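Extended Data, panel c. Modelled sequence:
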Amino acid sequence: MFAVRGAGAVTRLERDGVRWPLGARTYKSVLLVHIASAGAWLGIDIVMGVLVFTALLTPDDRIKALSFQALELFAPRTLFATGAVCLITGVVLGLGSRYGLVRYWWVAAKLALNVVLTALVPLALSPGVSEAAERARRFVTGAPATLAVGDLIFPPIVSPAALLVAMALAVFKPWGRIPWKRAQPPPTRRPQLDTEGA
């Protein structure tokens, strides 16, 4: 997976603090998977938005119930999978390039967005989608059930917006390096010369 690009390149990468430099072909392959997973993530968010806003705006309760059931069928698992792939490939790219994980502000911000969005899928989205789908199933069987969208309106707004911010960060690379203070070695004391006597 890791390769040496040449003596000059290794020297430059080592000087930049890259411990595991990726070969050119490996780097491009991981970058391709990273971009594809981010694109799939955004696409799933858009489909989720279509289903949520359909349930919000339609007057037909049967369509609302169907939208919630369709949402449960695909959204949580695929969103978590694409988020995890995007996160793993992003970490590999950071460790295998001069950008690092917390060396530049834009990389650290992208990493934080990815971790938060991926973690929110099992912690917040999945329970909300399951609860809405359960209400939809009760409605289909004729049991009393409310079909309000509730908090499900937020994920298809927040997630695509955050992904677009992350993509803009990757393109424009703002803010420069994080000014980490390197530990300075303690000053060495020079021996005192005895200038008196003798």
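The helical segments are 7-15, 24-57, 61-95, 105-140, 155-172. This feature is highlighted in the accompanying rendering.
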